[in-house]
Amino acid sequence: MKALLLAGGKGTRLYPLTHSIPKPMVPVLNKPLLERTINYIKGYGIDEIVMSLCYQPEQIMNYFKDGSRFGVKIYYCIEESPLGTGGAIKNAERYLDDTFLIFNSDIITDINLRDLIDYHMASGARVTIALTRVDNPSAYGLVETDNDGRITAFKEKPRPEEITTNFINAGIYVFERDVLDFIPAGREVSVEKEVYPGLLSAGVKMYAYKNNNYWIDIGTPHKYLELHNSILDGLFTYPFIEMDYKNRIVIGKNSYISPTAKLIPPIAIGDNCYIGNDVIIGPRAVIGNNIEIGPGSYIRNSIIWEGCKIGSGSKLSNTIIGINCTIGDNKDVSYGVIAY
Questions:
Q1: Which stretches make up the Mannose-1-phosphate guanyltransferase C-terminal domain (predicted)?
Q2: Are 101 and 4 in contact (CB under 8 A)?
Q3: Environment class of residue 162 by beta-carbon count within 10 Å: exposed (0-12), middle (13-18) or buried (19+)?
Q4: Tens digits of per-residue pLDDT, 212-258?
Q5: Contact (CB, 8 A) for 73 and 50
Q6: What's CA 267's distance to the chain center, in Å?
């Protein structure tokens, strides 16, 4: 079985962090989100990956190349202009055969993919959509089912009075290849708004796989911070996450920590970092690779991406700092997003 990763989005809700980096490459505990996703999928024995790319595809292709470094084989499909979720699936048709998995590349979850695939096979569905429960489904697309799990209706971003279920589309699907015949080629198509309602009208058998596993869409800075807090606090143990849940402090290779610095768990510090005298880091802080933090600075509830320099005496709280940024001396930043 192959997995198709929909990784072409610009990440406008994460802007300006995604000004110079594709959304699927944003770091999750100092490794790209896509790398985390590939390791997760590979853990279920799926080692052929099709990537659908559009925004800054070179960054992704240069990082993953043919996939051999990650134990998978990767095929690339490049969109010259955005084709939407349905158009991206159709554009990858030449690489897809039999049953295949589709995965939105802006989510993190621990849904059991083997159970999902087995459920799809047992139901005889042509499409199976993984559903997840949320407190407020009004910002998502909710999916209604009958008692057997067969999908009966879709509602995109419903008004409060239209909410009939708290289960939403989780952005993970299992398709049979013949479903591709229902998707028009050569134009932008939404799988959620156009393809799925069309399949439903045509009587195509579609089932929902309901689960209560961890799931998060990291499309906003708030959700991005929430994900890292969940990992650091041990609320979500993602496969291959390099978190020491006993000591709750991770320090990468060749990083120097001043003897007078104070580390308050849970925190993660990347490779080749320099943490100066009297620096306080934590709780809930992720420091990327190749970071320099000047004397007397205080970092908490924040994420700093690789290559940044933080001056002396600065304070960062509930803040995300993008790649290769410099924060001067004695700066105080709270609830901020800095990318330049």
A1: 264-334
A2: yes
A3: exposed
A4: 899 999 989 999 999 999 999 988 876 666 666 557 899 999 999 99
A5: no
A6: 20
Q: What is the DSSP string of 230-258?
A: HHHTTS---TT----TTT-EEE-TT-EE-
What tokens were used for 236?
């979500």
What is the pTM for the complete model shown? 0.92
- Pairing of β 332-334 and β 315-317: parallel
Length reported for the chain: 340
Q: Is 84 helix (H, G, I), strand (E, B) or coil?
A: helix
10 is catalytic: no
**Domains in the chain, CATH or no CATH each:** 2-220 (3.90.550.10), 244-338 (2.160.10.10)
- Which among 65, 73, 157, 262 is annotated as catalytic? 157
Tokens coding 92: 């990858």
Q: Where are the beta strands (DSSP E) in 110-266?
A: 127-133, 141-145, 151-156, 167-176, 206-211, 215-217, 249-251, 256-257, 262-263
Phi/psi of residue 53, nearest 5 degrees = -120, 155
Helix 33-42 vs helix 57-64: angle between axes, to the nearest 10 degrees? Answer: 50
